[in-house]
């Protein structure tokens, strides 16, 4: 089930957008287009998926309030990844697809890291 969710989150923006690689490199590309908005939405979904994955961890009952780190940690780090995506998007708008996929993978790996830590 987790693998299916991961595949949907990673592949959905690519399928929806029907990426067309531009041969004309001299064309100036805008930073915030329909593609970048779809990646921002996918990053939000990956933050939710990361939190769900982190909550699958074996949390002992004696952890008390320490169990909140499995909820707060992936969300906080996911927001930092989203901010980094927006900064990189404004700096390198022609690489929005690569940066978007990388941000989604980072969010999902954060959830997996929390699950196994």
TrEMBL record:
Superkingdom, taxonomy of origin: Bacteria
Keyword vocabulary terms for this entry: Membrane, Transmembrane, Transmembrane helix
Transmembrane segments annotated in the record for this chain: 36-55, 67-92, 98-116
Protein name as catalogued: Uncharacterized protein
Source species of the chain: Confluentibacter flavum
Organism lineage string: Bacteria, Pseudomonadati, Bacteroidota, Flavobacteriia, Flavobacteriales
């Amino acid at each position: 089930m987790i693998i299916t969710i991961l595949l949907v989150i990673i592949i959905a923006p690519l399928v929806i957008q029907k990426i067309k690689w531009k041969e004309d490199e001299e064309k100036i590309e805008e930073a915030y287009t329909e593609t970048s908005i779809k990646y921002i939405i996918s990053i939000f979904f990956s933050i939710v998926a990361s939190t769900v994955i982190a909550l699958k961890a074996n949390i002992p009952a004696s952890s008390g309030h320490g169990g909140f780190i499995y909820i707060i940690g992936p969300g906080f780090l996911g927001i930092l990844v989203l901010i980094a995506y927006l900064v990189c998007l404004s700096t390198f708008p022609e690489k929005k697809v690569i940066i978007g996929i990388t941000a989604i993978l980072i969010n999902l790996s954060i959830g997996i890291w929390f699950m196994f830590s």
